[in-house]
Amino acid sequence: MFVLFSKFAPRCAVCHKGIVPVEGEKESVRVVAMEKSFHPACYRCEDCGLQLSSKVEGAGCYPLNSHLYCKTCNSNRLRMQDTV
After folding, report:
1. Quick one: pLDDT at residue 55?
2. Helical spans, DSSP H, in the chain
3. Positive or negative, the Cα torsion across 66, 71, 73, 79?
4. Nearest to 17 by CA among 2, 25, 26
5. What angle do CA 15, 18, 20 make, to 5 degrees?
6. Which of 64, 58, 57, 66 is closest to 79 using CA atoms?
7. Max Cα–Cα distance, the chain, nearest Å
8. What Cα–Cα distance (Å) separates residue 45 from each residue in 7, 15, 42, 72, 83?
9. What is the pLDDT of residues 38-84, one digit of tens each?
């Protein structure tokens, strides 16, 4: 069954590995953002590495120019763009 999952599973946009169920589980967990799939552990801010989550204040995903950022890093990037 694992071979079937790994052959047809969506690939994580960060680590490029298949998003397959954890051993003992029947379903896999994935995050979809900007039409890309991510393992929950790979779904992180591209600047500071904070694990993104809609359940934690300030840790939501704030995309900018096709990149994933946390609220703080998104704000910093926007400020840098304004000064250019």
Report:
1. 87
2. 2-8, 71-83
3. positive
4. 2
5. 125
6. 64
7. 54
8. 28, 14, 9, 10, 22
9. 999 999 999 999 999 988 887 899 999 999 999 999 999 999 987 76
C-alpha to C-alpha distance for 33 and 3, rounded to whole angstroms: 26
| Kind plus residue range of the DSSP H or E element containing 62 | none
> Which residue's structure tokens are 């991510």?
38
Over residues 11-27, the pLDDT tens digits come to 999 999 999 988 888 88
In the chain, helix, strand, coil percent, each to 5?
25, 15, 60
- Identify the pLDDT of residue 72: 95
